[in-house]
Description:
- By secondary structure, the protein is of the alpha+beta class.
- It folds into two domains: 8-70, no CATH class; 88-150, no CATH class.
- The chain is 49% helix and 14% strand.
- It contains six helices and three strands.
- It has a three-stranded antiparallel β-sheet, with helices on one face.
- The longest helix is centred in the middle third of the chain and has 25 residues, at 88-112.
Amino acid sequence: MKPKNKNVxxxxxxxxxxxxxxxxxxxxxxxxxxxxxxxxxxLHFLMNNFSLxxxxxxxxxxxxxxxxxFFKWIKQNLKIKSFIGTSKNAVLAQIWVAMCYFLxxxxxxxxxxxxxxxxxxxxxxxxxxxxxVSLLDxxxxxxxxxxxxxxxxxxxxxxx
Length: 160
């Protein structure tokens, strides 16, 4: 196949290595080499799809990588360790709830000008969730005041 795009360095049909032959794969494969200007990298795609262009394959791969980065962000920021359900609806519901929680934390941090990371805000919320205290009052305290409250002798003031 002759490349139509100047970023496609080569696009050719190749025979499978003996490793594939021993596993029962005997069809020919397609090897497309694509140069990405943004990252200054040469990418090699080995596939059995002969109908899509090499540029389309590169775009699909780029989109797939964005999805991988999104799931990495979800795991790092939304703290979803495992999914409660396995159905599509259960997984989506859990992701949406976690995203809403994250966005509410980010909004509270922005509105109160809280200087610490969101994980610290999440810890504070977890500790005072069932207490009758004002979140704004707690967030306006500095770290020394929070430390004093945490280890106070007065049970009404022990938030943490």
